[in-house]
Amino acid sequence: MLGPVILAASRSDRMRRLISAAPVTKQVVDRFIPGEDVDDIVPVVRSLTEQGLELTMDVVGEDITNPAQAAAARDAYLELVDRLKPLELGTRAEMSVKLSMFGQALDDGHELALKNVRPVVEAAAEIGTTVTLDAEDHTTLDSMFAIHEELRKDFPQTGCVIQAYLFRTEADARRLAENGSRVRLVKGAYKEPASVAYQDKHETDRAYVRVLRTLMQGEGYPMIGSHDPRLIAIGQELAHQAGRKPDAYEFQMLYGIRTEEHLRLAAEGHRMRVYTAYGTDWYGYFMRRLAEKPANLRFFARSMITKG
To answer: What is d(CA 249, CA 141) in angstroms, rounded to the nearest whole number?
Structure first.
């Protein structure tokens, strides 16, 4: 099983040094993480939106060890909002945040993360867009959902992410669908024990379809986070069955993976949002994308010899 091995490597300082120093690494990383700072990312935003695509942007970096780093993460997102403002893109360019970056794992982390993320959500609302709270490992989810609920009192458009491989997710989906939330559904990218998560890919896929059906039949706004052609087709069929128009749900895929599919879906009239990460601390994000679906190794390897 490659997934657990890759996840272990994502937490290894030695592997970080080795991979970062490899000559081929920058070529691969640049394909999937298109910049290190906001100056790099603004032209990317312009290019993608001109092609009819939408974005959700993630400033990567999760190893927060003190409140000052958490505040710096908040300020990085506020800078992004400031740079997005003159583009007047509204919800075509939103943001994704990991609460670990805002201090969730520190002492009094729940309150600290809420304190730090709220100004970002407020600033996003001021320019006509929103924020989605990314899901992390299962031990953080009660805090994430509580912060999501608190933010939605003033900013009901605030989204969250749920992970199909967790046993709890079907109940979470029913609750979120009933209260009209924006919800991104992904398979899941963290190493979770068998006590809380499906370990078999086929079980995860079946759970994904069950959860997506719940979201499509609910009152919220489903966001289909998958590169799997079969799940994309199922998502379209479930949307049709639920009577949803193309602006009542969307697809989301990672920057640099299946780019032709991004454009195909957009050309067919679907909302297609590209998850676009940037920043200097790219290693953890990069390794989790490999672990999420080890077949992604083929995408990364192929990228070294083709621009397709």
So the answer is: 23
Q: Quote the tokens at residue 276.
A: 């676009």
- State the DSSP string of 244-274: --GGG-EEEEETTSSHHHHHHHHHTT--EEE
Residue whose tokens read 């939106």: 49
Taking CA atoms, 246 is separated from 221, 237, 269, in Å, by: 11, 12, 7
Report pTM.
Answer: 0.88
The two tokens of residue 258 are 């299946």
Residues 6+ apart with CB under 8 A from 224: 184, 185, 212, 231, 232, 235, 249, 250, 251, 252
- The verdict on whether 172 is a catalytic residue reads no
Among 58, 74, 118, 134, the active-site one is 134
184 is catalytic: yes
In a 10 Å sphere around its CB, with 0-12 CB exposed, 13-18 middle and 19+ buried, how is residue 224 labelled?
A: buried
How many whole angstroms from its chain centre is CA 187?
A: 11
What is d(CA 66, CA 128) in angstroms, rounded to the nearest whole number? 31
Tokens of 163: 């992970």
Residue pLDDT, tens place only, 113-165: 999 999 999 999 999 999 999 999 999 999 999 999 999 999 999 999 999 99
Weakest-pLDDT range from 55-69, 175-189, 195-209: 55-69
In sequence order, what are the beta bridge partners of 132? Answer: 96, 159
In whole angstroms, give the CA distance from residue 161 to residue 144. Answer: 9
Say which of 92, 118, 182, 184 is annotated catalytic.
184
